[in-house]
């Protein structure tokens, strides 16, 4: 019975190269976790560059962040307050639920949902 448990534990150290595994980065630019095709960014008072590559989705939480997002984001959800976020392109949907956020996207024609308060969302 003990050898079966030990055998089961040896399989736990698998070296799979599955690219859908969560990955995380943190540092002076904040915390970013990617799960599947969605990037989750949450921090306070940071300046950071985020890459949506070609069609990833992005969730932003936290406050007082200045973010520059490159690539093409499919769906974007922004919570928190007082964030300044600039996107290269948003394709499908842009939802802002926080307060006092300034969001600019340069390209794309997303469905825009502003369910927060005092947000500024513009294409430019």
UniProtKB/TrEMBL annotation:
It comes from the Bacteria. InterPro entries: DUF3060. Residues 11-31 are annotated as: Disordered. Residues 12-31 have a biased composition (Polar residues). This is DUF3060 domain-containing protein. It comes from Mycolicibacterium rufum.
